[in-house]
Amino acid sequence: DEMHTLQQKPEGYRNLWRQGIMGVWATELTRPAIFQALMERRTFATTNVRTYLRFSVDGACMGSEIAHTGPRKISVAAASEVPFARVEIVRNGEDIILDEPNERIVEAEFEDPSLLTKPAHYYARLTREDGEMAWSSPVWVE
Q1: Is the pLDDT of residue 17 over 60?
Q2: How confident is the model over 68-90, as a mean pLDDT?
Q3: Which residues in 42-119 belong to E strands, given as ranges?
Q4: What does the pLDDT read at residue 15?
Q5: What pLDDT, on a 0 to 100 scale, did the predictor assign at position 113?
């Protein structure tokens, strides 16, 4: 019947609407600490895969607002059961750094190649070899 035919998923079907998982960097595993981490924007998200992700700019954890002059040092630490194909550093919505580590564990430091004197925001976007992704919250630099 027609209704039964519509409910069957074709071979190779993949849901176009992905679910996601969000993580927070809390000081301890308690309700108040988790809500504090949320309020301080120490968060990251993935496309429904368990991935560890830490991101900082000049030592300031993701979600931070900092004042800094001079070169901006960017750190990314990530781990997953599938190797990362790409690590991208995004500044003000534009990719500025691309690394292709092809490793399950990434610990990398970069430097913003420009000497900006105006405010900027940075975040990390990682893509695994299977196409799943993870994003950090930004760090805002004045």
Answers
A1: yes
A2: 95
A3: 43-46, 52-57, 60-61, 65-66, 73-91, 94-99, 103-111
A4: 57
A5: 75
Q: Tell me the residue length of the chain.
A: 142
The separation between CA 68 and the C-alpha centre of its own chain, rounded to angstroms, equals: 22
3-state helix, strand, coil in the chain (%, to 5): 10, 50, 40
Q: What is the pTM of this model?
A: 0.83
CA dihedral of 117, 120, 124, 127, whole degrees rounded to 10? -100
Secondary structure class of 33 (helix, strand, coil): helix
Contact call for residues 74 and 89 (beta carbons, < 8 A): yes
Q: Which two tokens stand for residue 61?
A: 């954890």
Per-residue buried b or exposed e for 1-35, using 16+ beta carbons within 10 Å of the residue's own CB: eeeeeeeeeeeeeeeeeeeeeebbbbeeeeeeeee
Task: Take residue 70 and report the two structure tokens written for it.
Answer: 């001079």
Strand 65-66 vs strand 133-136: parallel, antiparallel, or unpaired?
Answer: unpaired
Query: Count of CB atoms within 10 A of residue 67's CB?
Result: 10
* pLDDT score of 120: 93
Overall average pLDDT of the 46-73 stretch? 93
For 40-50, what is the mean pLDDT? 95
